[in-house]
Write a structure and sequence with these properties.
Largest sheet: 4 strands, parallel
Distance between the termini: 46 Å
Strand content: 5-15%
Structural class: alpha/beta
Helix content: 40-55%
Oligomer: single chain
Shape: globular
Strand order of the largest sheet: 3-4-5-6
């Protein structure tokens, strides 16, 4: 949150909105540019990280310094919503042309505290591949994994961070064959059923949709759960 002082209002300029929140990116990254100039004078070659998050998620209206590393925080499991996906892809491209030498992706790969299987493997792979092509070169994610449900997603991400161009289906073929062995076929059906349930959720998308929200259970009706249990 930000104060309502005259100085802050001047730094912000006319109030803009982005993703339903006030847009204070010019305030935050104006400060980051001043800090980066000072860091550059005192410590040439050092980088200064900053989360592009919440009220400063949008790219600012001016270039950022090359030694600022913006971390683009977004819930890309919501790329199942085409409108959110298109908006986020455009945002990534704006940041990759912002002047920053390194742009980082910050994602949410939970895991706990979701109670349903949050299998987002292909959505996450799509976002990593796109971000790399756009110019992003760093990655961080919160996971808090439930390993019984999150294994293939996090394993695939680990492989893609070495080579974002690898086909995710080939990676999953390797995962199921070598991790699950004789159980590969039913476990593939289990995870793909979970992934289809998440990816087919109704729109619109927003940040951490269903987080600590019991409505998440509606994504897994009784007949689907029975089928998943039969795979197990």
């Amino acid at each position: 949150r930000f104060d309502q002082s005259e100085a802050t209002a001047r730094a912000r300029g006319p109030l803009r909105w982005f993703r339903g929140r006030p847009d204070y990116s010019d305030v935050v990254f104006g400060f980051m540019n001043r800090a980066a100039d000072e860091v550059g004078r005192r410590h040439p070659g050092k980088l200064l990280g900053a989360d592009a998050y919440y009220w400063c998620e949008n790219a600012p209206s001016f270039p950022v310094r090359a030694n600022v590393v913006p971390w683009l925080a977004a819930d890309r499991s919501q790329w199942c919503d085409e409108a959110f996906r298109s908006e986020d892809r455009a945002l990534i491209e704006r940041w990759c042309h912002s002047g920053a030498r390194i742009v980082g992706m910050y994602d949410y790969l939970y895991g706990a505290p979701f109670l349903v299987p949050r299998v987002t493997t292909r959505l996450t792979a799509d976002s990593i591949e796109f971000a790399y092509r756009a110019g992003a070169r760093a990655y961080c994610a919160e996971a808090y994994p439930n390993w019984g449900l999150d294994g293939p997603k996090l394993w695939a991400v680990a492989q893609l961070l070495w080579d974002p161009g690898r086909p995710v289906d080939a990676l999953l073929e390797d995962y199921y064959a070598h991790f699950w062995g004789e159980a590969a076929s039913p476990m593939r059906r289990f995870y793909e059923g979970c992934e289809k349930a998440w990816s087919g959720q109704p729109g619109p998308g927003w940040w951490l949709k269903y987080y600590r929200d019991e409505a998440q259970a509606e994504l897994f009706p009784a007949n689907l759960c029975a089928g998943l249990r039969s795979c197990l």
